Structure formats: C-alpha cells, structure tokens
Amino acid sequence: MAIIGGGITGLTAAFYLKRAGVPVTLYESSPRVGGVIQSLRQDGYLAEFGPNTLLETSPKIGQLVRDAGLSARRLDPDPAASARYVVRYQRPIPMPATQLGFFTTELFSLRAKLALLREPFRPARRDGVEESIAQFVQRRLGQEFLDQAIDALVAGIYAGDPHKLSLQHAFPKLAELEARYGSMIKGQILGARERQRTGEVAKDRAPKFSFDEGLQVLTDTLGQTLGDSLRLNTAVTQLTRPGAAWNLDLQTPNGTAQATHDTVVYAGTAYRLAELKVAAPAPLDLSAFSEIRYPPVASVVLGFRRSDVTHPCHGFGMLIPGVEGFNILGAIFSSALFPNRAPAGHLTLTIYVGGERQPELAALPPEKLYPLVTADLRRLLGVRGEPTFAHSVFWPRAIPQYNVGYGRFRARMTELEQQAPGLLLAGSYRDGVSLSDSIVSGGKVAERINAAVA
Ligand SMILES: Cc1cc2nc3c(=O)[nH]c(=O)nc-3n(C[C@H](O)[C@H](O)[C@H](O)COP(=O)(O)OP(=O)(O)OC[C@H]3O[C@@H](n4cnc5c(N)ncnc54)[C@H](O)[C@@H]3O)c2cc1C
Q1: CATH value at residue 340
Q2: From the CB of 248, is ligand 1 less than 6 Å away?
C-alpha cells in the first residue's frame, strides 16, 4: 500500500492503515511531514504559518487525537478569547454573540437587520442551478451582508472570492439548509436534532483547539509512528499499472528509483496531481486538475510588546471585508487564544495577505510586505513601535478554490478512480478545505481500503 503525500490527509490514512495491520509506505517529496501545517518555536514565540486551529466538527477529530496518544498535549483556547471582530467604518467591531447583540450592533444597518428577520420567509430556490455564495447571500440576505460579513468570512476561510466560490461545493451545509428547510435560519434551528444524532457539529459552533507546541505536534507524531515506512525527499512522478499492481517511479536525492504496490492513495494537491503521469495501462489525461485555482497567500506572524498595542486583542481575531480597503485579509490574535504563543508582556498576531482579493501582495518580499502589514495594524489596532518578532511564509498556491463548476473536477476524480482501479484520491482538493475535513478524508480512505482487504 502506497500513500503519496505526507500532509495531514496522507498521515491520517497511513496511521489508521498501519494500526489495522496493513503494510504501508508513505512518500513525501519534501524533507518534512505536515504539508501546509508548519509551526515554529523561536525566541519565546510560537508561530503557525499554515492553519492555526483545528475544528472539532466530527467525533473523528477527537478520536485521532486520542489514538495518537496526544490527549495530554491538546490545548484548548482561553474561553475568554471567543470574541470575533469584523472591520467596519475602518475599525474592528465585535460580532454580536447573542440575538439581542445583533439588534444593537453597529456592524449592520437597520435595513440589513430587517433583511435577516425576513430570511425565513424568502422563497427557497429549488431549480437546482448552481450559484455563487455571493448570489445566494444577495438573494436571501441582501448586498450589505455580502459586502460587510460574507466577503470577510470567505477571505478568512478560503482566501477566496465570494462571486466565484460555489454555494453547493464550498458551502454545502448552507445549500442543504435551504434545500431541506427552505431557509438558513429555520434550518439552523430545525437541523439541530439531526446534527446531535450524527455527532457532527456546525463549523461556526465547533470547539477549536491546538497542541502545546502547535499543530505540527499532530503531524510530527503521526509521522513518527510510521518509522521507516516514511520516505521523505521522495517524489512520486509516474504511476503505471501494466497488470494487477502499480509501479511507482520515484525521484529521490540519489536519483530515480521504482517501487511496486497493489493500492495507491494520492493525498497531495490538485496541481501536482495534474503533473503526475498515470497509465492504467493506457495513459490517462489528468490535465483538467491544473485548472483548479489555488491563490497565493502570505502568512505573516508578528510579535509586539503588549504596551505597544492599544487594542486589547482579546478574542479570536478580526476579519476585514474588501470594501474597507486594507492590505491585509485579517488577523488572528494568536496569543489571546493560546497564551503560550508569546513571551510574558508580549503578544502574537498572525496576519494573512493576498488571496483572490490581492494576489499580487502575497508575493512581496518581507522588506516590502511587513511595512504594508504594520501600516494596517497601526490604523486598526493602534500598534506602535517595531515588531519584536517577524517571520513569514509565502504560499504560492495556498488553498483550493471550490469555484462554481467545481462539480466537473469532482466528477473527473470519481471517473479517474474507476479508470485506474486501486488508485484512490483523498485530501483538501476533494473532500473540503479545512484541516478537520482533511482528517475525515484521510480516515475515510483508510476505511475504504480496510473494507476492501477485509
Ligand atoms: C495559510 C493556510 C491557513 C490555513 N488555515 C486553516 C485553519 O486555520 N483551519 C483549518 O481547518 N484549515 C486551515 N487551512 C487548510 C488546511 O491546512 C488544509 O486543508 C490541510 O492541511 C490540507 O492537508 P492535505 O494533507 O490534504 O494537503 P497538504 O498539506 O497540501 O499536503 C500534501 C502533501 O503532499 C505532498 N505531495 C504532493 N504531490 C506529491 C508527489 N507527487 N509525491 C510526493 N509527495 C507529494 C506535498 O509535498 C505535501 O506535503 C489553512 C491552509 C493554509 C495554506
């Protein structure tokens, strides 16, 4: 059994297969496991350059933490740090946490508040036509919700464009609420019992957590359990299936090599799947996957003296709608969530730049990027003085965009599995872009294989 890709998806699949007694080899082209999960401990700071938190949307998440023996290292956020801010009128305003708060907040106009009250009475669209999340929100809640809330939320989750992201593929739960209950609000209320039965938790309510030394604790631990079944610095470049087994062409620092496996799981990225040569036995065309967009994002982690920041920064962080005209997409108040992210008397902010909104900014070198970021932080959080810690990572292709029309890529993935028996596809390009989606995806592909070999 071969797993291609040592991100969280491939590691989860390999971990569960090995536990079930299936011999497994994991090939990872880079020198480390974790994929986009990258934590750095330096000078008393802990920086996360990929995901910051893991959402417990499914019982499978907590199960993996327990199975990996990491319960004691799990770190739950400070409960006092639950506030979320959205920028309006050029300043962060707390998102209302209660119904009463919604009616008194200055984040939305009276007109927008009334539009929300009318949402349960708006006719549901049932013609099956795919639409963007922007079209959906305009139809059910109006332009102000799109511009001031959803645009910011979409930047926070996908670094994406609400006019391009598909409601059905990027926000399937919302699409389902309208289809089943005729309204998002009615669905939130009436769907609660169904969620209780399945143990699934909506993303906006799911508990979030990390580990004492960051999310990389999870991927490092899963990697260690693989022992010498883990092949780092080994890219799989070609898969051929002349008979009953797959031949893998490998590129290693010492040159090329070959391996043979009965089953192969591809747990990499869509753009690298497009580069893979696959013949089963005739060559298969995977070029369509190169059309899946992955916009660039820069993750900037800055530390400041607490006394140099006017805003309390108590809470999860702030989201910034495009209409507000800032350089940054948003910021996480990392050391408010997890106090061990900064030395005493200091705080850590994790800021994202680029995405579909301003892709050109993500690629700026640090000497140009940091001044842009700190200029925004000065205006939004009253930051003074120079950062005491500054590190960044540029992701040329960060997060797959489930844009309108994504169904054709998913259909091609299913078709590929049929054309190439014994090749299975899993990961954030197929089963949802969050870390928890990737864990569920990795666990599910292991279950499919276990069921087939049982
Ligand atoms: C900046 C950023 C912030 C994020 N924030 C959050 C967050 O706060 N919360 C959240 O839930 N999610 C977040 N996400 C999303 C989440 O991190 C990802 O969905 C998840 O980590 C994807 O894991 P994966 O294993 O599917 O893919 P990846 O992590 O991309 O791993 C794929 C691996 O496959 C390897 N590979 C590919 N092709 C080959 C090949 N041919 N041969 C060998 N190896 C190969 C690659 O080198 C890579 O290591 C964020 C993502 C980014 C980029």
Answers
A1: 3.90.660.20
A2: no
Domain containing 310 equals: 295-395
Q: What is the pLDDT of residues 232-251, one digit of tens each?
A: 999 999 999 999 999 999 99
Which sign, positive or negative, has the C-alpha torsion 251, 253, 257, 263? negative
Q: How do strand 25-27 and strand 2-4 relate by DSSP bridges?
A: parallel
Structurally, the chain folds into a number of domains equal to 2
The one-letter amino acid at 46: L
pLDDT at 202: 73
Is 28 touching ligand 1 by the criterion CB < 6 Å? yes
Q: What is the dihedral of CA 303, 308, 310, 314, to 10 degrees?
A: 30
Cα–Cα distance for residue pair 84/82, rounded to 1 Å: 6
CA of 13 to the centre of ligand 1 (A): 14
The verdict on the CB of residue 5 being under 6 Å from ligand 1 is yes
Closest to 302 in 3D by CA, of 228, 266, 353: 353
Cβ–ligand 1 distance for 296 under 6 Å, the answer no
DSSP 146: I
Residue 155 Cβ < 6 Å to ligand 1: no
pLDDT one-digit tens code per residue, 262-312: 999 999 999 999 999 999 999 999 999 999 999 999 999 999 999 999 999
257, 50 Cβ separation under 8 angstroms = no
Please give the structure tokens belonging to residue 373: 């970021």
Main-chain dihedrals φ then ψ at residue 391, nearest 5 degrees: -140, 150
Residues 253 and 285 in one domain: yes
Within 8 A by CB and 6+ apart from 356, the residues are 158, 159, 160, 161, 164, 293, 295, 401
Find the 226 Cα to ligand 1 centroid distance in Å: 19
Last residue of a domain, one of 395, 410, 430: 395
